[in-house]
Specification:
about 150 residues; 7 helices; single chain; 2 domains; mainly alpha; Hypothetical Protein Yqey, Chain: A, domain1; Arc Repressor Mutant, subunit A; GatB/YqeY domain-containing protein
Length: about 150
């Protein structure tokens, strides 16, 4: 079953079970997919769907920070539930230790020596972890390894 079909099935299930948060989250994903298809006038591939979901995940994580500043616990709780739903459709997320292992290997591969090489390391690491973690964690780990 393709990811697109799984989204449709889960949407139907969430409507039957009256799970409004899941229904709204899946509808948001499907709308973003449809928008990309209309913009590019082509069918999106599985990896493009994963990119869309990863982008939405990043937006939700950023929104949580804003909600914390505004002391809106209700919105924080809602957004955390949406994040859990988005994570169901992404590959298993890497732990910080797994990201650190990849970063250390990459630093050795490209012979990075100082914090000045952060751009090179990030450029080399990101394709390896695409969809499995966010860039903020990678950046944090790269800084830690290079310093």
């Amino acid at each position: 079953m393709s990811l697109k079909e799984k989204l449709m099935e889960d949407l139907k299930d969430s409507m039957k079970s009256k799970d409004i948060i899941k229904k709204n989250t899946i509808t948001m994903i499907r709308a973003a997919i449809k928008q990309k298809e209309v913009d590019e006038r082509k069918e999106v591939l599985e990896e493009e769907i994963l990119e869309i979901i990863a982008k939405q995940l990043k937006e939700k994580r950023t929104a949580i920070e804003d909600f914390k500043k505004g002391e809106r616990q209700d919105l924080i709780d809602l957004t955390e539930k949406e994040i859990q739903i988005l994570l169901e459709y992404l590959p298993k997320q890497l732990s910080e230790e797994e990201v650190e292992k990849i970063v250390i290997e990459t630093v050795k591969e490209i012979n990075a020596t100082s914090i000045k090489d952060i751009g090179l390391v990030m450029k080399a690491v990101m394709p390896k972890v695409k969809g499995k973690t966010d860039g903020n964690m990678v950046n944090k780990v790269v800084r830690k390894v290079l310093s």
